[in-house]
Amino acid sequence: MQTPQLETERLILRPLALSDVPAIQRHFDNWNIIRHLSTVVPWPYPVDGAETFVRMQLDKISAGDDIHLWVLALKGGDGEAIGNIHLRPRAEGLKGNRGFWLAEPYWRRGLMTEAIGAVNDFAFLTLGLDHFYVCNAATNEASRRVKQKTGAEFVGFIELAHHGGQTKSEKWIVQREAWLRGRV
């Protein structure tokens, strides 16, 4: 299934495109974002990091991988990517099924909680998932708050190396019934 465009009150979540490379490179090359991510993400972030990432993800999608990737853009804005959410509904692995980042100038506005609500609706109402897992560095309080506000339930800790030196990650489950009961 192709990744559909989703909309919220303040955001457009549209499929990732090669044209998003400049904005992703500019916003993502930020220690305040990277420090909470697993060491699979290169740091220092290379000058072609966003282009390499976008091309690799688009190639995976073209090859039929079950990945949904959205960039977040403000409604009424210039369409610039200010963040990213991925959903890998059937992925097995430590990092879970969904991940996200948001450009630092847009933090503390509830935008990611709003965007995650639309992605959860897609996961449960369109894809018909029963549940999926999400993780965050134990030190990433903002990511934890998004999970709490969007119906995730804490499962426990896992070991996963992050750039900030953190090796403890929180693992959460997002379940269809709980989401539908308390939809954001």
UniProtKB/TrEMBL annotation:
<dbReference type="InterPro" id="IPR051531">
    <property type="entry name" value="N-acetyltransferase"/>
</dbReference>
<dbReference type="InterPro" id="IPR000182">
    <property type="entry name" value="GNAT_dom"/>
</dbReference>
<dbReference type="Pfam" id="PF13302">
    <property type="entry name" value="Acetyltransf_3"/>
</dbReference>
<feature type="domain" description="N-acetyltransferase">
    <location>
        <begin position="10"/>
        <end position="152"/>
    </location>
</feature>
<protein>
    <submittedName>
        <fullName>Acetyltransferase</fullName>
    </submittedName>
</protein>
<keyword id="KW-0808">Transferase</keyword>
<dbReference type="InterPro" id="IPR016181">
    <property type="entry name" value="Acyl_CoA_acyltransferase"/>
</dbReference>
<dbReference type="GO" id="GO:0016747">
    <property type="term" value="F:acyltransferase activity, transferring groups other than amino-acyl groups"/>
</dbReference>
